[in-house]
Design goal:
The structure is a single chain. The protein has helices at about 1-10, 10-30, 40-65, 65-85, 90-100, 185-195; strands spanning about 35, 100-105, 110-115, 120-130, 135-145, 165, 175-180, 205, 215-220, 225-235, 240, 250-255, 255-260, 265-270, 280-285, 295, 295-300, 310, 315-320, 320-330, 335-345, 350. With about 350 residues, the chain is an alpha+beta fold. The protein has four domains: about 1-100, no CATH class; about 100-180, no CATH class; about 195-275, no CATH class; about 295-355. The strands form four sheets. Strands 1, 2, 3, 4, 5, 6 and 7 form a seven-stranded antiparallel β-sheet that branches. Strands 17, 18, 19, 20, 21 and 22 form a six-stranded mixed β-sheet that branches. Strands 8, 9, 10, 11 and 12 form a five-stranded antiparallel β-sheet that branches. The longest helix is centred in the N-terminal third of the chain and has 25 residues, at about 40-65.
């Protein structure tokens, strides 16, 4: 018996079989604890078992005294290679189904492991992250993105979630949350590229890259004014309130417009109270990502004789320079309005562009 065991130990197949047994036992143990291996553990094990089988068969063929054994093993290995080549598409499909893209992300105020399934429809299943080796066995929640063929975690802020599904501790569905797709995220991105800034009823949103963005939300209305909140994101998912007041809001007049040229510098064009000629439009600027705003300083040049300098709209940003259209009113002249261009490097102080 000892001789048989010693002979088995001299072959890699013995250790490959031992690895399979240990791995199977560990799986049973983890299931009792409601835990599961991270995906790379399965990929590593699959690689180890395949390599072990190949080396073990080669060892048997090399050590065997019988020619028929050697020939049989060689033919077996050739047949396996041929079958794998013929059924490569099925093998790849098997790989995609059983080894979907795995991502460790911050979700629901914690670290989660997300698996992306995108064959016909795109779905992401999330499990609790335990450590580098383990995750929870029971699914926590899932996101349904509708059409398939993409990875929403690798390409955030492009595709919108259509449905959330939440599960209890036993993996049973306890809630569905449907997201109304009145405006697709793809359409929002295209609109920003075609015409910036854009203004819509619920506020303003812009991304400067895949992760950094700014947003203005209208949260209340009263007496001809609207309350806004300003948010920024550094990871494309979690939005942080910025305005440094007790309630985190700021009041502006109806139909105010918003613009950010980078994550720090942004503007609010408040066009004033309708019907009141003394309540002219104002332009406010933030240089700290929306934490605080101040009135822009329009420096009155000596060659403009009219007293009032009135702001037409939000500034535009071209070739690293901010440009602002300002006009004057003179009812004794025709046309009554005269337009001028002012420029700024920081958005705070504006000077007349004498080069025009």
């Amino acid at each position: 018996m000892k001789e048989i065991i010693d002979k088995m130990k001299s072959n890699v197949l013995f250790y490959t079989g031992a690895y399979v047994v240990v791995f199977a036992i560990s799986k049973i143990f983890l299931k009792v604890l409601e835990l599961e291996y991270m995906q790379y553990i399965y990929k590593f094990s699959f690689f180890v078992i395949i390599i072990g089988l190949i080396i073990g068969l080669i060892q048997i063929a090399h050590k065997s005294k019988y020619k028929i054994v050697k020939i049989s093993i060689v033919l077996l290995m050739i047949a396996i290679v041929v079958l794998c080549t013929i059924f490569i598409q099925i093998i790849l499909l098997f790989y995609v189904v059983y080894f979907p893209p795995e991502h460790v992300v911050e979700k629901e105020n914690g670290k989660m492991v997300g698996y992306v399934y995108s064959f016909l429809r795109t779905r992401v299943d999330y499990y609790e992250y335990i450590n580098f080796f383990l995750r929870s066995e029971k699914i926590k929640f899932s996101e349904d993105y509708g059409k398939g063929g993409f990875d929403p975690i690798e390409n955030p802020n492009i595709h919108a979630v259509q449905e959330y599904t939440y599960y209890d501790k036993n993996g049973k569905v306890i809630n569905h949350k449907y997201i109304e797709q009145s405006t697709k995220q793809e359409d929002k991105q295209e609109e920003q590229e075609e015409e910036r800034p854009f203004n819509y009823e619920d506020g303003y949103e812009i991304f400067f890259n895949e992760k950094e963005g700014c947003r203005v939300d209208v949260v209340d209305w009263a007496m001809g004014k609207e309350a806004i909140k300003v948010y920024t994101t550094n990871d494309g998912e979690n939005w942080n309130s910025q305005i440094e007041t007790n309630n985190g809001i700021m009041w502006v007049h109806y139909d105010s417009k918003f613009l950010f040229i980078n994550p720090k510098v942004g503007f609010i064009f408040d066009n004033g109270r309708a019907g009141d000629p003394e309540d002219y439009a104002t332009l406010q600027v933030t240089t700290n990502g929306g934490k605080s705003y101040q009135d822009c300083k329009i420096i009155h040049p000596s060659n403009i004789t009219e007293k009032n300098l009135l702001i037409k709209d939000l500034p535009i940003y071209e070739e690293g320079i901010l440009k602002l259209t300002i006009y004057t009113l003179n009812y004794n002249k025709e046309p009554k309005r005269t337009y001028y261009e002012f420029i700024s490097n920081d958005g705070i102080e504006w000077k007349y562009n004498k080069d025009l």
